[in-house]
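Whether sequence alone determines local backbone shape is best considered at the level of individual chains. We regard such an encoding as a compact summary of how the chain folds. The sequence in question and its structure tokens are set out directly beneath this paragraph.
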Amino acid sequence: MKLYMSVDMEGITGLPDYTFVDSQLHNYERARRIMTEEANHIIETAFKYGCDYFLVNDSHSKMNNLLVDELFDEAELITGGVKPHSMVEGLDESYQGAIFLGYHARAGQPGVMSHSMTFGVRNFYVNDVAVGELGLNAYVAGHYEVPVILVGGDDGAANEAEQLIPNIVTAAVKQSITRQAVKTLTPKKSGELLREKTIEAIENLDQIKPLIPPKQPTFRIEFNNYGQAEWAALMPGTEIEPNSCVVKFEAKDILEAYRAMLVMTELAMQSTFN
């Protein structure tokens, strides 16, 4: 059995605010150690319960956060950027299941540090379905007919996953009080929970279906200001919807939509309020 795991950071145990997820700030080194330990709980358990290959993709910020020298020895790691498929780099049809760890709620929703890729994005839409990172990544997995079997993160991410994917197993390691305050398990207790939920996800793998994307999706990004939309619309094939900050792109498939999202959000980051 081959398993794939995308590891974000905002949903990791005990992390309440940006001082833990910004590599320039004082809590970051503590956070990346907890992040690596949390990944190891899942990887080690998976190998004990039938996995014979496990690929981990570091999916936060510059995507070089996981401590490779402390990662479980039998796993392989994709680290660094820029990656053509970002948070789902390396995923393909050869995997039996995907796991999302350290995930958070989408922009505009309750949850610790909730956002969608960048803080300039208000909403992503695949056709008319509003999604965040979790949903968009799950659609990419569904393109390869790979089910997302386990999501670990805050309660906002768990709720979002359960609404999108029937029978998915979730592990909420912390409860959001506000966007920058949480009630959290300790790393020891969250490790126990993640191990338990990994076993449950593997045992129920056949009951969890892939989130299949539309064949030729209309992909839309709603930005926070019009300047961001103007920058994003410099990408060929896009247009700004009238009287809005929404940029539309007609994609041939979800993979093209995903790469369009990466380009548009990078362009939009050039906008300022000056």
Summary: The CA atoms of residues 87 and 195 lie 23 Å apart. Residues 2-119+132-207 form a domain with the Rossmann fold fold (CATH 3.40.50.10780). The longest helix spans residues 28-48.
